[in-house]
Amino acid sequence: QVQLVESGGGLAQAGGSLRLSCVASGSTFRINAMGWYRQAPGKQREMVATITFGGSTYYADSVKGRFTISRDNAKNTVYLQMNSLKPEDTDVYYCRAVVDRIYWGQGTQVTVSS
Predict the structure, then answer these.
(1) Spatial CB neighbours of 18, under 8 Å, sequence gap ≥ 6
(2) Spatial distance between the Cα atoms of 10 and 31, rounded to a whole number of angstroms
(3) d(Cα 69, Cα 102) in Å, to the nearest integer?
(4) Distance (Å, rounded) from C-alpha 53 to C-alpha 43?
(5) How confident is the model over 23-62, as pLDDT tens digits?
(6) CA distances from 30 to 44, 58, 63, 99 (A)
(7) In angstroms, rounded to a whole number, what is the distance separating the alpha carbons of residues 51 and 84?
(8) Which tens digit of pLDDT belongs to each residue from 60-93?
C-alpha cells in the first residue's frame, strides 16, 4: 500500500509560478514511477509529467519548457515546479504512483487567473 498526499496548489496569476509537492508513504520502496496528472470537470485525466525510478522524465507537450518534475528520494517526495503559468493550466492536479497498481492522491486545485 502507498499513500500520497499533495500540497502546494492555489491561486496564481498568469505568468506566475507554483510548486506542487507529493509525499509518499507506505511501501515506497516498491514505487516504479511517480507523476502528476490533471483533470478539468467533464474531461479525461491527462498526464502532465512523469519521473521514473531511473530518473527519466516525460512531459506533456503543453507544459514542456514551463514545468519541471523532480524528486527527493530521501523524503519520498516528488515535486512539480510550474512556471509561466497560463489560465489553461487551471485544473485539479493529482499525484500518481506506479507500484503493483496505480495509486492516486486526493488532488490539489490550481487556479490561474488572467
Answers:
(1) 8, 9, 10, 12, 82, 85, 110
(2) 27
(3) 19
(4) 29
(5) 999 887 788 899 999 998 899 999 999 999 889 999 999 9
(6) 27, 20, 28, 6
(7) 21
(8) 999 999 999 999 988 889 999 999 999 999 999 9
